[in-house]
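Hey, I was hoping to borrow your eyes for a little while. For a while now I've been wondering how a particular protein folds. The fold is given in discrete form, as structure tokens running alongside the sequence. Could you read through the record and tell me how the tokens relate to the sequence? Take your time with it, there's no hurry, and the full record follows here:
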Amino acid sequence: MQAEIFLTLLAVLASACPAAGAAWQPSEACQRRCGDVDIPYPFGIGRDCYLYTGDNDITFGLTCNLTADGIYKPFCYEQEILSVSVARGKARVRTDIQPWCYNGTSRSMDPQFAPWIDFSDSSFMLSDEENRFTVVGCNSLAYVSSMEGSQFTNGYEYMTGCMATCPGGGRVENGSCSGMGCCQAAIPRGVNTYQEKFNTSRAAAGSSSGPCSYAVLVEAAAFDFRTGYVAADGGGGFMESTGGTVPLVLDWVVGKETCLEAKRNASASACVSGNSACVDSRNGPGYLCNCSIGYRGNPCLLDGCRDINECEDRSIEYPCSVPGTCVNTPGGFSCACPDKTTGNAYTGTCEAKKSLLGVHVAMGVSVSVVVLVISMACACIIREKRSLDTVKRKYFKQHGGLLLFEEMKSKQGISFTLFTREELEEATSKFDERNVLGKGGNGTVYKGTLKDGRTVAIKKCKLTNERQKKEFGKEMLILSQINHRNIVKLYGCCLEVEVPMLVYEFIPNGTLYQLVHGSGGSLLVPLATRVKIAHEAAEALAYLHSWASPPIIHGDVKSPNILIDESYAVKVADFGASTLAPTDEAQLVTFVQGTCGYLDPEYMQTCKLTDRSDVYSFGVVLLELLTRRKALNLQATEDEDKTLSSQFLLAASANRLDEIVDAQIVSQQSIELIEQMAELAKQCLRMDSEKRPSMREVAEELGKLRKVLQHPWGQQSSGELQGLLARSPNTYSEIELSNACVSYDDSAYIGVQSPR
């Protein structure tokens, strides 16, 4: 019977503030008190005064009955409810004490087991903080246990208990429940089923220690042990003094989900009041509703949480140190000193204000000084700004900005931008050294991010020639129209500074120099990859020499100026070096500072820069790809050649090519292919520039080598390879042409990693 009563009670209390009915509100005319007990919503007395959940026929309806002692008390299916707290998630109910008494007729102790109490189908758990398992008697051993498979005990049975004794000479004291006549034990957190049991090995009943023992799960704060509970005659015993029932505290939660899960569906949240908060349960999954700090009321009612007036609430200690200084605010308060006083009302330091005349004079003087300083500062700033604008206009005009601007207006579809100094400073964090990508004879390159999100490389150039400055803007416009897949795109420039700045697309994977010479030369770079890089770089230079209008000479061809993008495609950079200057009406060339090891010897003698100067420098790049040696070795002895080109030509003339070529590719490929590439490099390095091939011819020869390496022909015999390389692509048979036009296989890149 007791189990049925508890299950009925749980059905009433299981979902306080449930989301299912959160939008519905009770009538204001509903009875909210029965006797001395408040009835907070979702509980209620009478129709439409409590929460009705619908299909499961679970009701929060209570009855207010007149008891035999003439007092009205709230009941739910004959079970008296002592109190309900919505904010704390607690419910106090009456529970029966389990006696174990001697039966004179059967001469046995009966009963031994109490009924099971099962809360597992509800949202309720026994409060481990406020309840204690209590045994009263002499020589009484009892324990409380759970059902196996209980939800909140992780599927395992638990058991706890204690033994109360009355040894000879032992002293039983009022208020002491430490084992002499009374003992108590804590219960685990989150328990939702239990049964009280007595041990059958208890001493013979009817002894001088008393005829009965008792076991009960009771609210610890409501239990006070008395020696009369274990009296031999039973007079004034436990059952008589308590009426056979004691309070029991239950913890409950709104729902089984967490606050985070409940907030995902705000329309179904149980916390319907404004200024309410969701609090996760300490017992496991589930949550409660509480009013926010500074508010009080019922969070399950619309506008149920009302602001606390801390200044007038007598249950709260006056919050300010100085009386009369408290000002109530929504959800809080503030302390302000009374009129004609100043100080801190929170700490009680309000004092009468002193004469304000001196203060006003001092404030007036201070304000005047501040205004004067600000005015002077503003005048200086305006003057500096005007001076800066004048300098900017001077530089803009000096670098050909006006001419460039007119050209841009006259030509439609030019994707070239004139950046301001402020834009580039913002992109590079004011040219922070941490953003430097590299430094060279022609300037410093910074990494930057424009406002539109593009990552760019910004080069601060070095100019010394007045004629270069005047033609700079026009030449940049010519360079911006270069459009080739293997040449870095020029986005724009900044001309309002003393030294112009160029803005290029950013290539993330480093340079050919890093790929070939990085990691101590241990990185595997197949011959097919090296030929591909050389071919794409040659095509870019051939485009500048033959198809750009007007033609452009790079002037500083070297492996650090050949960039590798994320797909390991080549991007030739720094074309035009620092500026361009016309030598005649058909050609633009670069006045270069050059790089030792790459510079054309003929240029060093004649100071005449031609497209064949780029060919010579490219020949050195081919040697770097073949040998993985640097173009200039400053560590070489006096008897050794410091330049790679001299080392190579000497080895080639002595038929010692295998001594200088990288061992990685010698072991990978037929020596004939390597010799073809070495011969091409030798042609590029001829001292007489007229005898060097053009970049277009170099690109064509590298294209042939690349196609051979792509095709199984690359594994054929020496005689077959010689014949294939000697033939022009135009003389291929129909079958050979169909095979030679197969797109390049990216598998040739296996083993090539991004240089760091």
Observations:
- The mean pLDDT is 77.
